[in-house]
Amino acid sequence: MSWQAFVDTSLVATGHITKGAIISAAGDSAWASSTDLTISPTEMKAIADIIANNQAAKDKAFAEGLYVGGQRYVVARIEDNIYARSGRDGVAIAPSKQAIVVGIHGETQVAGNATSVVVALAEHLKGTGY
């Protein structure tokens, strides 16, 4: 399956994610994304730094928010995964070994379901060596 197919079928087609992306764990490239989602190099690097447990990056995200696709999200939690909100919309982010899965949900979608879908894809990628 192509990276784009993972975004289209494993994220968006579930109905729990409005748009999504898979970026490199280094935060230096987007492997695939929804057509209406562009994550800038600066945004990818910030996400990767948080996932890499960079405390300064975490502190900055909590203080200033996390930007994904040009949208500012208020960070709700950072554990193994990241969850942040912008009004009633939200973003769930989960790492695999070599990639980071990003899923954005809209106000009519349930945050917990969106997070579960993102984490499930990340776990699947881990299981296949990615």
Automatic annotation (TrEMBL):
GO terms for molecular function: actin monomer binding. SMART domains: PROF. Keywords: Actin-binding, Cytoplasm, Cytoskeleton. Its main location: cytoplasm. The keyword Repeat does not apply. InterPro entries: PFN (IPR048278), PFN_euk (IPR005455), PFN_sf (IPR036140). It is found in: Cytoplasm, Cytoskeleton. GO terms for cellular component: cell cortex; cytoskeleton. SUPFAM superfamilies: Profilin (actin-binding protein). The keyword rRNA processing does not apply. It comes from the Eukaryota. Belongs to the profilin family. This is Profilin.
